[in-house]
């Protein structure tokens, strides 16, 4: 294992697990900075409608942990339930959802791990069966063009809480563009995922959400 990979495993890659996945018995909490002014109550419905209006999306992302270490890459989303995080060259990690489960593929150690979508904070974005509005509440912001939406299922705190930051933009589905989300895990490790160059309605090849399995194949 080279020095770069050691740093990534201790920093941003470890933080990614906090940002996307919740292991059984290890709940995570997502938070956004509090501010004095609240958005109108109907912004919850507008934000949920905007998320559901996304058919496909491609965007660049920057992932930053609490120590300031950064990873970059491209995220591709196709509703319902599919997503791919393609990391920068040199990072031997891939994350995909096929609509049923989120899968982390670590090519350096040839390891594949899977989580049901419902066990992830990203379930609020990916799971078509989740009643997002039922578990969502607005967080106050100082900018009327910014909507901060906290989503948490009180019956399943182990699934974590997701706070989505959305920005009013006429060209985005539903007039609101997903800008970022922030994670703070049970060990007080903060991870931020920020999007840019969002493109909507882009064609997405069927094999986007597949992966090459690095595990040794057993031949009979």
Automatic annotation (TrEMBL):
Gene3D superfamilies: Lipoprotein localisation LolA/LolB/LppX
Domain of life: Bacteria
Keyword Lipoprotein: yes
Keywords: Lipoprotein, Signal
SUPFAM superfamilies documented for this protein: Prokaryotic lipoproteins and lipoprotein localization factors (SSF89392)
Segment forming the signal sequence: 1-31
The protein's name in its UniProt record: Outer membrane lipoprotein-sorting protein
């Amino acid at each position: 294992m080279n020095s770069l990979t050691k740093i990534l495993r201790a920093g941003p890659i470890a933080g990614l697990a906090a940002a996307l996945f919740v292991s059984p018995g290890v709940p995570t909490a997502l938070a956004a900075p509090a501010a004095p002014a609240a958005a109108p109550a109907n912004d919850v419905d507008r934000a949920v409608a905007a998320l559901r209006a996304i058919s496909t999306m491609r965007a660049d992302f920057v992932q930053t942990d609490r120590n300031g270490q950064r990873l970059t890459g491209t995220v591709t989303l196709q509703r319902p339930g599919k997503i791919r995080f393609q990391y920068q060259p040199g990072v031997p990690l891939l994350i995909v959802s096929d609509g049923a489960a989120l899968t982390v593929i670590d090519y350096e150690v040839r390891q594949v791990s899977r989580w049901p979508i419902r066990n992830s904070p990203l379930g609020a974005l990916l799971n078509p069966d989740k009643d997002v509005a039922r578990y969502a509440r607005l967080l106050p912001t100082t900018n009327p063009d910014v909507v901060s939406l906290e989503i948490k299922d009180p019956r399943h705190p182990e699934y974590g809480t997701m706070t989505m930051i959305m920005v009013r933009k006429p060209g985005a589905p539903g007039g609101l563009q997903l800008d970022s989300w922030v994670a703070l895990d049970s060990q007080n490790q903060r991870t931020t995922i920020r999007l840019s160059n969002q493109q909507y309605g882009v064609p997405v090849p069927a094999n986007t959400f597949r992966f090459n399995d690095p595990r040794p194949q057993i031949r009979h």
